[in-house]
Specification:
- This protein has one domain (2-194).
- The protein has helices at 2-28, 37-49, 53-69, 93-136, 139-156, 167-194.
- The chain is built from six helices and no strands.
- By secondary structure, the chain is mostly helical.
């Protein structure tokens, strides 16, 4: 068991270390501007500065109405290119598409935040049960529950590679960074309590 615990502890430590650093980089250091921003910067700025989903919906509503007033012929009969209608690069269809994508992303990130919190605390429950079982009853079963707990921690705090530019995306990163750090600290506590790297007979860690 000792060798297995050490291997799993090392893997988990590496995973939490690398993804915590990445979360911090994306949140605070990754460049978020482009030389192309000047071509559609006004709408991009509105999307980026929106502090709530309601703000995006308020901006989307008049643009959607303007697109609808153009008539259904602009949405029918035009072949789709890359998942977009042929008139998609013209106003108001371009703005409508960008705002709709921003709203969809916001809702997706909000859902991901709820899932992150729920499943992370499920993992915390597994960890507490695992610690109790490990200490009082069966070490293998306790270790199994502990592995399940850190599996939840690793999966739900893993990096999000797609999406950016909204307040909710930044909030998702903040949550992932915070929960990743706490998971990292819990790993250190488990390593200490279970004596994973404790010195064995002869004073040498094997």
């Amino acid at each position: 068991m000792s060798a297995l615990q050490k291997t799993l502890a090392i893997i988990a430590f590496i995973v939490f270390s690398t993804q915590t650093v990445r979360h911090a980089y994306v949140l605070w250091f990754e460049p978020r501007t482009s030389v192309l921003d000047k071509y559609d910067r006004p709408l991009r700025a509105e999307i980026t500065q929106a502090a709530s989903l309601d703000e995006l919906v308020k901006r989307y509503d008049p643009v959607r109405k303007a697109a609808d007033q153009k008539g259904p012929e602009h949405r029918k009969g035009a072949p789709e290119v890359g998942g977009q209608f042929g008139d998609g690069d013209q106003e108001p269809f371009k703005s409508e598409r960008q705002l709709k994508e921003a709203i969809n992303e916001w809702e997706s990130r909000a859902k991901e935040i709820r899932e992150l919190k729920f499943y992370w605390f499920v993992g915390l429950g597994f960890l507490m049960m695992g610690a109790l079982v490990y200490a009082k009853w069966n070490r293998w079963l306790g270790l199994t529950l502990t592995i399940g707990a850190f599996g939840e921690f690793v999966y739900w705090t893993s990096p999000t590679f797609l999406g950016a530019g909204t307040h909710e995306f930044d909030w998702l990163l903040v949550n992932k960074l915070g929960f990743s750090i706490v998971s990292w600290l819990l790993l250190l506590v488990v390593i200490q309590l279970q004596g994973v790297f404790a010195k064995e007979s002869g004073g040498v860690t094997r």
